[in-house]
Structure formats: C-alpha cells, structure tokens
Amino acid sequence: MTTTTVATDEAAIRSVLGRMYEAWSAHDADAFADLYTADATVVMPGLLNDGREAIREFMAAAFAGRLAGTQGVDVPQKIRITGDTAIVVSHAGTLMPGETTLAAERERHATWVFVRDGGDWKIAAYANAPVHL
Questions:
Q1: Cα–Cα distance between 29 and 60 in angstroms, integer?
Q2: What average pLDDT score do residues 11-27 get?
C-alpha cells in the first residue's frame, strides 16, 4: 500500500467519524446508523447492538431520552489499515448538555473496525470500555 493510499484511506476513515459525530450532534439516528454495515455490531458495557437496524433503534431512543442534547467526542489515537480493513483505537466519550470538557467518568477507550464496502469505508464493529475504573 502506498503512502498516498494510506493517507487517502486515513482521511476517508476520519471523514466517516466526523460525519458520525455530526449525525450525533443533529440527533439523526438514520444518518448515524447509515455509516455502519448492515451486520455491524456495537458492544459497550451492558449492551450489544447486533446489526444496523438495532443500532438505529438504540440511537433513536437514546437521542430522544438519555442522550438528548449531548455530543459525542472521539479522537483517534491510532489507525492501522490492512487491505480493506482498518482498526481505529480512540479516546472517546459523551459531553452532556452545556459541557465543553469530557468528564472522567464518561471517558472511554474505543476500538473501531472499518471495512471498505463498495469503495467507501463503513463501520463493521465498535466497542468501548471506561478509561477509569
């Protein structure tokens, strides 16, 4: 893989993350879920969403409830690309309404699995764990 291809792929992956957090800020569960593959999984403490539709339903309910007015944050720390698969490890969390700094209890280490799908990068899997126990 050439340096140009790696840089292009990294930019595309970062763009997917940017669009996802734009969808979060707009509380648009459809735009959010559309960035995932049809068979994607999301694993978080106490939660498993299996498939894009489960992700869409979960986020729609969360945006209408406990995530109303929130913003998601995610800062990639490392991106590894091998062929049509990429692994992203990031520092992530949720800003509650009015917050500008991520509270320690909502800091997460996140792992993303991206796959190239018809020329575009899609999220195939996501998992997170608390930074602080």
A1: 5
A2: 97
53-90: b (≥16 Cβ within 10 Å) or e: ebbbebbbebbeeebeebbbbbebeebebeeeebebeb
Closest CA to 61 of 102, 19, 91, 32: 32
pLDDT tier at 100, thresholds 50, 70, 90: very high
| Per-residue tokens: 101 | 């700094």
Two tokens, residue 57: 């339903």
Alpha helices in the chain (DSSP H): 3-25, 29-33, 52-64
The better pLDDT of the pair 3, 8 is held by 8
The structure tokens 């106490």 sit at: 46
Q: Which amino acid is at 25?
A: S
What pLDDT is attached to residue 17?
A: 97
Cβ(63)–Cβ(29) below 8 Å: yes
